[in-house]
């Protein structure tokens, strides 16, 4: 699953990152596999990771894949968002 909720206040996302893109955008959201993002920043010194998350470091933690394109990220403070709501919000960001 691309989006899970392991506890009441944590949302876990499986992301596929494509760095060095012309612009930063959400490419696709497939709840069964992953969320694909194009990131403008290069994959250097964590720049693409920071741009992909777009959050304070205290709100997001890369659990797995810090140096790879496949990442598992946990977002804290997400108690008010269900998995279904997260999917809807991300799908609304997909650019054609």
From TrEMBL:
Note the superkingdom of the native organism: Eukaryota
Question: What Gene3D superfamilies does this protein's entry cite?
Answer: YggU-like (3.30.1200.10)
Q: Which InterPro entries is this protein grouped with?
A: DUF167, YggU-like_sf
One Pfam family for this entry, by name? Answer: DUF167
GO cellular component terms listed in the entry, alphabetical order? cytoplasm
SMART domains (alphabetical)? DUF167 (SM01152)
The family classification in the record reads:
Belongs to the UPF0235 family.
The molecule here is called Similar to UPF0235 protein acc. no. Q54UW1
Identify the taxonomic lineage of the organism of origin.
Eukaryota, Fungi, Dikarya, Ascomycota, Pezizomycotina
């Amino acid at each position: 699953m691309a989006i899970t909720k392991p506890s009441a206040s944590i949302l876990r996302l499986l992301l596929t990152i494509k760095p060095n893109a012309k612009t930063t955008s959400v490419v696709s959201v497939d709840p069964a596999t992953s969320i694909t993002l194009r990131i403008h920043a290069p994959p250097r010194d964590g720049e693409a990771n920071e741009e992909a998350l777009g959050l304070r470091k205290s709100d997001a933690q890369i659990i797995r894949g810090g140096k790879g394109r496949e990442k598992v990220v946990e977002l804290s403070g997400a108690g008010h968002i269900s998995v279904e709501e997260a999917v809807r919000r991300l799908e609304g960001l997909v650019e054609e």
